[in-house]
Design goal:
single chain; 221 residues; mainly beta; 4-stranded antiparallel β-sheet; 10% helix
Length: 221
């Protein structure tokens, strides 16, 4: 295989797009400057049989594919969350920054990770920011987040594990975690971000906590 980057720099995101049964696998790489390379792989997943190069607005801190395999989501420092349609090769939706704070000051933008939530028809997207926030967007409802929660008061980068329609799991660089319930009102369940308790055991406990809370919420609704 040739070098993955089409921009002579290290990719910031590398992932496989979801594909229908029997369809060819596609490998996506995205560089910080917004250069995206999509390679259709052979059955052995060793060689590219076709490729598609597109350019999106940078800088890009994270890009991920939608569960349908038809869209890409991305964002970065002072680069709002955007959804890119692969068929038309155009941005079909762009988020809008949250309102100014109580001092009428603009809040900075830095999307560090994002996930299309499962079972949402590529409609709901959770992001985390470099400022400790987890936000939920509904691209069919509005451009600003429909839910927002603060999972840490530290200015550190966090990332998201793949979530469900109701939950996502935020992890800091040292693997401390916070499970976020994505339904009104948003709640941070058993947070350990900013404290101890990282690692695989903490993640298992987090998901157990999420499962219990989701079951209670579903039964109550």
């Amino acid at each position: 295989m040739e070098p993955l980057s089409v921009a002579h720099e290290e990719p910031r995101s590398i992932f496989m797009l979801n594909c229908a049964p029997g369809a060819a696998a596609r490998l996506v790489t995205c560089c910080e400057n917004g250069a995206v390379n999509i390679r259709t792989l052979d059955d052995a997943l060793e060689n590219a049989v076709a490729q598609q190069d597109v350019t999106v607005k940078g800088p890009v801190s994270r890009m991920r594919g939608a569960h349908s395999g038809a869209k890409l989501g991305y964002g970065g420092k002072e680069n709002e969350l955007q959804v890119f349609d692969l068929a038309s090769e155009k941005v079909e939706w762009t988020a809008k920054n949250v309102p100014h704070n109580f001092l009428d000051l603009r809040l900075p933008v830095w999307v560090t990770d994002m996930q299309f939530l499962r079972n949402s028809n590529d409609r709901k997207i959770a992001i985390c920011t470099a400022y400790g926030q987890v936000r939920l967007y509904d691209v069919r409802a509005q451009r600003r987040p429909v839910l927002s929660a603060v999972v840490t008061d530290k200015s550190e980068q966090i990332r998201l594990d793949d979530g469900t329609r109701l939950t996502c799991l935020a992890l800091s660089h040292d693997q401390t975690w916070a499970a976020v319930l994505l339904r009104p009102p948003p709640r941070v369940l058993s947070p350990s971000l900013g404290g101890g308790g990282g690692g695989a055991r903490a993640r298992v406990l987090a998901w157990l906590c999420v499962c219990v809370c989701v079951c209670v919420c579903v039964c109550a609704s």
